[in-house]
Amino acid sequence: PVLYFPSSSFHSVCFCALFVFQERLSEWISELQERSENIEDLVSELELGYNTVEDHCRDSEEVMEAQNEEMMALVMEQYNTMSLSMEEEKKAKLEQLYDQIVSFQESIDQTKVTLDTTAREADIDPDTQVRDTHTHNTV
């Protein structure tokens, strides 16, 4: 069986089908445009988020670099202070050691003088030496 449509009926059916098809296409295009706009909004939000994170990272890096420089300056200052303190302590100890060496040398020199004086006195007066020896023997 073949369907028979009079030409005006066929034309009306085609027109209706075309109209329905156009409406469907129009709906799909609207839906695609809406989805496209949503995607564009999402991309804009993602880009804004990315830029915000990037700015935050840059700011954090600057803060960390400033803190690092501050800490390095503090460490160097403490190192220099300790180094200077140790140098002063070392200098004081060396001066104290030098004074002890000088004092020891003076004691040695004084002892030599005393020994030389005692030896000369013993050599000058042989009678005293004999008497001293004799006195020690008789006692």
TrEMBL record:
Cellular-component GO terms for this entry: cytoplasm
InterPro entries the UniProt entry points to: E3_ligase_FN3/SPRY
Superkingdom of this protein's organism: Eukaryota
Name this polypeptide is given: Uncharacterized protein
Organism: Oncorhynchus mykiss (Rainbow trout)
